[in-house]
Amino acid sequence: MQKRSSVLKLSLLLFLGLMIMVSGTAFAAVTPTQFVPGDTAVNRATGNQETPTISHGNGVSLAVWSDHRSTPTTLGFQEFETAGDIYGMLLDASGNPLSSQPFPITQGKANQTTPRLSWNGSNWLVLFQTTVLSGTGGYYETALAAVRVSPTGQVLDPEPIRLYNTAPVGAAWTIASDGTDWIIVHQDGDLVGVRITADGQLQQPGTILVPQTYYMRFNLDLACASGVCLLTFNEQDNTGAIRFDSGFNVLGSGLFTLVNGAYVDAFATNGTGFYAVWSRQQADFSTALFGSRIDLNGNLLDGTGDILSASTFQGVSAGVLGWDGTNWRAAWSIAFTAYAARMSAAGQVLDPGGVTLPGVTLGETAVTNNGSLQMVYSEYAQNNLTIYTTNISPSFVPGAQIPLSVGAPAQLFADTAVGSNGYMMTYRSDTAAGVRVLAQPLSANGTPLTSEPIQLVSGPTLNGPTTPSVAWNGSNYVITWSVLNTIYAQRLQQNGTLLDASPIAVMPGFGPADVSAVGSTYLIVGRHLGSTPQVINVFVARLDGNTGAVLDPAPRYAGGFYVRSVALTTVGNRWFLAFHSTWSHDDPIGQTAGVFIEADGTVGTSFFVYGYYSLAGGNGIFQVAAAANDTTVFVVQSAELTSGVETDLVGVLVNSDGTTGPPINLTPWQGNQYRPHLAWDGTQFVLTYSEQRNRFAPLTLDMLDARGDLYGMRIS
Questions:
Q1: What is the pLDDT of residues 626-668, one digit of tens each?
Q2: DSSP code per residue over 337-359
Q3: I need a labelling partner for 85 at 20 to 30 A (CA). Which of 92, 250, 473, 487 fits?
Q4: pLDDT surpassing 90 at residue 65
Q5: How do residues 273-288 score in pLDDT, each as one tens digit?
Q6: C-alpha angle 146/121/142, rounded to 5°?
Q7: Which residues make Cβ contacts (< 8 Å) with residue 71, sequence separation at least 6?
Q8: Are the CB atoms for 506 and 491 separated by under 8 Å?
Q9: Taking CA 607 as the corner, what is the angle to CA 659 and CA 618, rounded to the nearest 5 degrees?
Q10: Cα separation, 685 vs 573, whole angstroms
Q11: Distance separating alpha carbons of residues 432 and 383, to the nearest angstrom
């Protein structure tokens, strides 16, 4: 699966030659793949966006961050198919985005995180951590890589520049420009410097600037002016520093103490000298933010530092800093209130105590050439981290908070049912602003019947609607989902017309739910907490497809332990429910059970279908699927069979009397096979599933980031 600059989009993937049989009607599959229409409104993108930073150059600022919008799961797998990418957005001098959506800077395999960037007068260099193979290919490690970006947002290096022999410890690395090239210093025991030239050439080997000792150095910061680069870092309880020239020749006596008893927070250059800010405790135990100019020889020019902020017993945040062409500008916060101040080129504090910035969240900051502060930061809301920016005018007037990590919705967890002359697709549409369950009616050849999907329900991302499911009863469709602790359903006609003015509350419980029909009656299955959260039971209730009436106001218990996945199908004139569960929430050993449910809602006795098996292997995605003809049910699920590090798909035939056949390994080859979906077409079972058969491609990142494909299989 290729990663795209847009978010995950649903496509109608119907296999060539596949015939789906329902009520005696066969539908030929459409040959091409097409995207479902609509649902393209831009909002805050789903997934976490984090570790933003920003740099200004030639009247334009570039904000960059690590972006997880393309992660194809909500289960928290950081490197399943893909993880963090690096995205960016250009801003004008007033902080207005120059495009409607951010652009991808790099979308490599596995995880790209913690970007930093520097302007060299012509382009930016975006430096980031990425996952790579070790030199021998035997294991994975973190390394640094870089991409140049032009002032117009053009990515100049389609393949990132790999910095070999860089395994930075604790994100201890920094970047600056000497006005032509870029200098990168990272910690690998020693503090090592390397160069990337303006045309994107890496010059190696690196140069050891500060030899390692028994403790680590962190909080690295670097700036270059007039042929001198000044590197600062935490040196035990002080701020250590070293000067070197563009050839990495250490100047002076080497390592020296820049600030006693404090760590430099921010460090910048005006082209002829430097300025640093730091917080420090005073004699009365209050703290304040201090600042000082620094000459090219590494001397503090303002004594032990001028006090920039008010003194406080509440603590001062780390400061941010930049040069506006005339003055230094710093910002900080005290007790969630942000402040800013100017310091002249001569070192005079022009705004003693700072100017209050109401409503501003302090973040990484670039000072623009018109004197404004452009802040970027990541805020948590509704189960997502979103990147925002705020412009602070030259006169310290805060502008609006603008989201930068925006995009079209992610479309996830699709389910499809076939009607008398078409199909109905349902799926969940996710942004950081909220979650919606949508329905898309399709004609018999798969053509969308509406230009926009039909919204059934919406809600917040944290407690909004869950994975939907759809079924057809011969006259209409029902789509079911859960919100908080209630399972809902809504009926639709073939063309998508809603038959219910509002969703029907079917029973207490949570999803993912499932639904299937016997005659005109639907059965809906969902899960419900037992006596403690360590117990999850499964319940069912019937819904009259003609009237929308709930036929079982008291839901019927169908099974228990800690139920993780359910699948419901119609077999003859009754239903069959399969569910897989473990003994408790922290038990990795599971089993799959089944139970027949009569048309009047009577639940039979559950019985063993398959197990026991471990949930600890493979990619951790275990899902059960079921389909049936008039007499026989086929149950398919993931299980570790071929090896202890991957999942296969195992199938079990269940007879109408509850007896079962032997388990069948349907995918006895390497890679993970998971997320099965199953149907009966009147002659055979048709299985589709996600496939990672290239997971063990040698000397690649595929074990971490094997791109899944969609495969199909027919079973007699």
A1: 999 999 999 999 998 887 778 899 999 999 999 999 999 999 9
A2: EEEEEEEETT--BSSTB-EEETT
A3: 92
A4: yes
A5: 999 999 999 999 999 9
A6: 15
A7: 47, 77, 78, 80, 81, 82, 83
A8: no
A9: 100
A10: 19
A11: 8
